[in-house]
């Protein structure tokens, strides 16, 4: 896992300095406004793909809708694990299968579970009784790592609520930019935590920002590693318990609803303009291409997904970029300025939802 995640974690840590770098170099950021609708398309496609796999009957459809509607209207961090647990219990209660539970002899390595619990409780207490932003970042990302079941898209609603709406560590646009960037890179979606941690640690030294990114990246992966080492030796026996399988059906269905709700929430934050909807539809069309149907987490379609970020920025920022270059290097030729003026006429008008 370290070999798989380390390169993209390092890159996302560097990208957490993107806004400062663009500001220092006077590089226009207008093109970044398209990343929001693109992210919505990625999330909605993830919800669709998960939904087609986990929604098999009326019960799972209702749990999918339960997860989506509940988390859309109640946007508090505690609601996400509660929805998943409720869906799991509901799936067991309404199941018509018999003999759901029976005893199995288990001998798990309890040390990993104890370490997981000690770190979880200890980080919560330290976050309450200390004023260290690094400790608070570790606690929040560690909590994101163990409260949500599923892939990187499932954690989006919780992270958005924690980072943007509750704590205000970053703006809506900064969150969408980071999540859009990680979509275009090979590696796990959880690597977004390095970007988010770095952004949240701004305001101090560069070292503090890098430390925030590193701590956040470690924190979100750590609970999964500990729980894997705890559960894996006994997983074959746990799978023999029907109740476990039945509860997972409800949990995954609700998780799909969480992702769908996140897409709608982020689309609302971007604005329901015609241009936004057009970008979403174009991105969905490219993602549904038969040649690009692999899971985004595996790094497939890297060039195409990365172009979703580069091309819009290049096109919309082209006039300003030429103007900056002309001013900086005192170009006397009129061609660059004429090109800038011409392309400015083609540039779409600004929309409040993109800023």
Question: Main attributes?
Answer:
15 helices, mainly alpha, disordered C terminus, 0% strand
Task: List unreliable stretches of 5+ residues.
Answer: 292-304, 313-318, 328-355
Main structural class: mainly alpha
Largest sheet: none
Topology as a string of helices (H) and strands (E): HHHHHHHHHHHHHHH
Number of domains: 1
Taken as a percent bin, the fraction of beta residues is: under 5%
Figure out the total of helices.
15
* Rg: 22 Å
| Envelope shape | globular
- β-strand number: 0
Helix content: over 70%
Q: Calculate the mean pLDDT score and round it.
A: 78
Question: How far apart lie the N and C ends?
Answer: 36 Å
What does this structure look like?
By secondary structure, this protein is mainly α. The chain has one domain. It has 15 helices and no strands. Helix 7 packs parallel to helix 11. The protein is globular, with a radius of gyration of 22 Å.
Give a concise summary.
The chain has helices at 2-15, 18-24, 35-54, 58-73, 79-94, 110-129, 133-147, 156-166, 172-183, 192-200, 206-238, 242-270, 274-287, 302-329, 335-346. The chain is mainly alpha-helical. The chain has one domain (2-354).
